[in-house]
Amino acid sequence: MEWNQIPLGPLQTNCYVLTNEKKECLIFDPGEESRKLSGFIEQKGLKPLAVILTHAHFDHIGAVDDIRDLFSIPVYIHDKEAVWLPDPALNGSHLFKIGKLIKARPADHIITGEQELSIGEFNFAILETPGHSPGSISLYFKEADLVVAGDALFSGSIGRTDLPGGNHQQLLESIHNKLLALPEETKVLPGHGPVTTIGQEMDSNPFLNGF
């Protein structure tokens, strides 16, 4: 499996495209700049199967409708944030005064609880990692040694918890109980900034010391 990190939008939110040997792909968090993202997919000759959202903050969902309509693919989101997609007050675009209100149509598939999920030939585990937001999830691909962590865990940092529904203690528990329980060699694909590993964050992340 191959993956590509594509920073999108004014906040440079990381969108990820995971691709298998058949050139099928999953798209995670298409935050903005749908033409940039679709151009990459078309240039590579990829066949998208689904959009999966780690959470529903505005900077992760801005291109959702464009991408799903262009490729005729479904969107997945956790049930605790299902109503956030069409609501700028919940997804944060109203709060941040970014110049436009971000709205997306409801998701096609609602994720409830932790589970193993298969889409095409992609098999992965859904980990509930709330704290940055109530419905934040991380997607763990065991065979590829990687986890798409959204805004839960960053290189040398953790997600902010001062937004509506955020909870600092809950985020720390999510990181320690779900993410740091993964093998140390697991690559962490975060919602912002560079890729890291579980081992690196266990050793050097100052926000996790003394928990």
Task: Sketch the topology as an H/E string, one letter per element.
Answer: EEEHEHHEHEEEEEEEHEEH
N-to-C terminal Cα separation, in Å?
34 Å
Mass-distribution shape: globular
Q: Write down the domain tally.
A: 1
Specify the biggest β-sheet. 6 strands, mixed
Reported CATH architecture: 4-Layer Sandwich
Give me the CATH fold name.
Metallo-beta-lactamase, Chain A
The CATH superfamily title: Ribonuclease Z/Hydroxyacylglutathione hydrolase-like
Tally of DSSP helical segments: 6
CATH class: Alpha Beta
**Pairing-aware structural class of the strands and helices?**
alpha/beta
Q: Ranges with pLDDT <50 over ≥5 residues? A: none
Strand content: 25-35%
The strands making up the biggest β-sheet line up spatially as 1-2-3-4-5-6
Description:
The protein has 211 residues and is of the alpha/beta class. The chain has a single domain (2-204), classed as Metallo-beta-lactamase, Chain A. Helices cover 22% and strands 30% of the residues. The chain has six helices and 14 strands. The protein has helices spanning 34-44, 58-61, 64-71, 88-91, 168-179, 198-204; strands spanning 2-8, 13-19, 24-28, 47-52, 75-78, 109-111, 115-119, 122-128, 137-141, 146-150, 153-154, 157-158, 187-190, 196-197. The strands form three sheets. Strands 1-2-3-4-5-6 form a six-stranded mixed beta sheet, with helices on one face. A hairpin with a 4-residue loop joins strand 1 and strand 2. The chain is globular, with a radius of gyration of 16 Å.
